User: Which sequence fits this backbone?
């Protein structure tokens, strides 16, 4: 006994929609970006020349994640910037709105060696990414990475009070 299966147009459309939805699910999320971050990093040309710089934890005032591997930490109101190289396996660092430097060895500094790390909350859990290297950035390297130059310090204007004897004659009494 043979049975024939008839596929209607509505069935074909339903199969096509289901296939498209499954393909969209597969191509989303951090796993779909595997390999693209390495290409982005090579395109940016991120190379660290020093990896053992340190910054006081209390002076860190902000951050900018370049990708899931490199984070720029800003200190002293943005006047200094440090490039942190994070350990592999840290996902979604770039999409975080808050990062916390963790002083793992208790010396008050975040360094490119030791047990210091960057922590953030992801999907209800705290992720802790070890810092493998830390380099203070020059103005040129800041511009090359696209994080801008530090704000210029405001110059204090010296107020000069004119005194008699500075080339002006004192006012005559009335």
Assistant:
């Amino acid at each position: 006994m043979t049975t024939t299966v008839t596929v209607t147009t509505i069935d074909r459309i339903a199969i096509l929609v289901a296939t498209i939805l499954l393909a969209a699910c597969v191509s989303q999320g951090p796993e779909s970006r595997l390999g693209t971050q390495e290409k982005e990093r090579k395109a940016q040309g991120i190379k660290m020349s020093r990896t053992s710089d340190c910054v006081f934890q209390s002076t860190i005032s902000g951050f900018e994640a370049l990708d899931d591997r490199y984070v720029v930490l800003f200190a002293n109101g943005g006047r200094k910037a440090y490039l942190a190289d994070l350990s592999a396996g840290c996902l979604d660092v770039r999409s975080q709105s808050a990062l916390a430097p963790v002083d793992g060895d208790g010396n008050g500094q975040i360094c490119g060696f030791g047990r210091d790390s960057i922590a953030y909350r992801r999907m209800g859990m705290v992720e802790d990414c070890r810092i493998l290297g830390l380099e203070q950035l020059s103005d040129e390297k800041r511009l090359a990475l696209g994080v801008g130059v530090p704000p210029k310090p405001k110059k204090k204007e010296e107020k000069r009070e004119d005194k008699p004897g500075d080339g002006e004659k004192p006012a005559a009494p009335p």
